[in-house]
Amino acid sequence: MKRRHDEYRSRIRSIPLFADLADAEIDMLDATLTEAHVEAGKALTLQGHAGRDFSVIVEGLATVIRDGVEVERLGPGTFFGEHALLRGLPRTADVIALTPMRLLVAGLGEFDRMIREIPSFADQVREADRQRQRSTAGLVQH
Ligand code: CMP
């Protein structure tokens, strides 16, 4: 059991978003995040639809498509789906798996709990959300 915990902690800490977490915070994630495997081509979010989950990419690559245009590619250590959950708004982009992917997924309640209880997670996710929405707003104006 201890070994399983240690392995989980070091696996989670290898993800930059979670690198600085305390053991107790990581143990909370263990009970909160679900691992998912998805096939290439799967639509992980759809622009304009309601959002019910947030994902961290462990393996694989996804494209972010907004208004039919690719705005970003996301790989291991990055995350997506924060915007709809943080703001209670529809998805701002399609996120499509370009390769088979391994994800750590949090539902709405779990995500809210992580935001409330893990300040370093909340700060990074909020900052990424601000930058992403700013960069995409810039694209739309040009
Ligand atoms: P959400 O709007 O919930 O669902 C689509 C997701 O795509 C969004 O959250 C972000 O996680 C991601 N996304 C949207 N725009 C960008 C961008 N410009 N760069 C990176 N990721 C983005």
Instruction: Characterize the biggest β-sheet.
Output: 4 strands, antiparallel
- Terminal Cα span: 55 Å
Strand order of the largest sheet: 1-8-3-6
Write the H/E string, N to C: HHEEEEEEHEEHH
Strand percentage lies at 25-35%
**How many helices?**
5
Bound molecules: adenosine-3',5'-cyclic-monophosphate
Taking all residues together, what is the mean pLDDT? 93
- Strand pairing plus helix content: what structural class? alpha+beta
Regions with little confidence, pLDDT below 50 for 5+ residues: none
How helix-rich are the residues, as a percent range? 40-55%
- How many extended strands? 8
Radius of gyration: 15 Å
CA-based shape: globular
What's this, in brief?
The chain has five helices and eight strands; from the N terminus they run ααββββββαββαα. It is an alpha+beta fold.
